[in-house]
Backbone:
DNA sequence: AAGTGTGAAAAGTTTCACAGCG
DNA sequence: CGCTGTGAAACTTTTCACACTT
């Protein structure tokens, strides 16, 4: 196995990809502190992982370190960005500007990390607008044209559970390739589409198992 | 290994515990549709997993099925609830009622799944109250007393990154055992405390790797 | 000496396949 | 017969330990 899948993309374990994002943040923090070279031990500590795991993760997509010295912060940042497909700004849309949806729009956590939420869609756009959302909120039926026009690839899905699958189908049909899904529903989509479920109640439930 | 860890709790793989929550929801859906018995194949389909995995997951904490027939919906619901520690309502507090925090308070996704957010805490409680939050919002320094008084075990942490670790320390010291952490920071806590990180920007970043 | 890169071992998880029960 | 419960196999991910480079 040469770490290559059929699409020509390097085959990195899913969990390692999550960690790459964490490394990216840690590197940015180090860069802000004028650090220009970092050892796997130090970076691992900042990121909260084992140093051996960090080295293995980085080795999945290249060799960037200097033995005896460590990794150049700036180069490594660039390489991880490139691997994650974050060299250029990704436009994102949000669908379903209800309670949670408009909350996410006002919360600027995505922008801070370099994602631009360029528009939102809702059956009742006025309601969201009146909630103090600044990003343009359009009527639901304009969704498809907008996605095609702007070639948007990423969507945040916050519609009520009962509409989630139907809306997901529309998104995929219009060209969306990745969905961040906040509905507590297992979406069924083609294998070429990536779904990321964020299920807040489920996370709390998971915690409640571990408290004795 | 008899599936028992030192605390006397059955040793269920972490990933299986997440799935138990999904099964619980699926069962509730079936129950609402008057289904009283369900086969592993059917329940697995609803939950979006393989039937063999479902059977293995359930087997970790008991034997509830009848061969040739399937699982009794109601009993299985009770057993999973019990395993997850969800037989009785868990009180939860939220710390940091800023942008995201007050958004989560207005969003009632937790309540719907049976968690009661009984109070929130913030350095500037008035700001959150004026944002239309109905749950009582108290001043930050009342945190410890409240946790002890009500023996709260679960907290949702939404303070800015720079205060996250300090606040987590306070929570743990006051008796919190599980933290749902929305700050993009790896919290360092004792091994008896469970942390669940929900990092929205990280999830988006993960998606961006998979879109070609 | 310090620290990377990496095979190989260990641990964790999923899937298979089938014996056995109702 | 239909479907559960489960060992064993397959696969994935993590950790170890050390050869090797600067």
Residues:
């Amino acid at each position: 196995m040469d770490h290559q899948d059929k699409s020509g993309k390097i085959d990195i374990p899913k969990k390692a990809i999550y960690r790459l994002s964490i490394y990216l943040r840690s590197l940015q923090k180090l860069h802000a502190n004028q650090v220009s070279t970092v050892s796997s031990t130090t970076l691992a500590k900042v990121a909260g992982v084992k140093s051996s795991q960090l080295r293995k993760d980085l080795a999945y997509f290249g060799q960037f370190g200097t033995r005896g010295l460590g990794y150049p912060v700036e180069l490594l940042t660039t390489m991880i960005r490139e691997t994650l497909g974050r060299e250029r700004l990704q436009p994102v849309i949000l669908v379903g500007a209800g309670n949670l949806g408009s909350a996410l729009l006002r919360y600027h956590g995505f922008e801070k990390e370099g994602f631009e939420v360029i528009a939102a869609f809702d059956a009742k756009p006025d309601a969201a607008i009146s909630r103090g959302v600044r990003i343009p909120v359009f009527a639901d039926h304009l969704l498809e044209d907008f996605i095609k026009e702007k070639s948007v690839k990423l969507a945040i899905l916050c519609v009520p559970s009962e509409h989630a699958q139907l809306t997901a189908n529309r998104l995929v049909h219009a060209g969306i390739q990745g969905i961040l899904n906040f509905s507590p529903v297992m979406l069924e989509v083609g294998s070429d589409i990536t779904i990321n479920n964020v299920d807040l109640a489920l996370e709390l439930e998971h915690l409640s198992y571990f408290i004795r």
Chain A has a mean pLDDT of 91. Residues 39-41, 51, 55-56, 58-59, 63-71 of chain A lie near DNA strand C (CB under 10 Å from a C1'). The radius of gyration of chain A is 20 Å. Chain A has two domains: 14-84, 90-204.
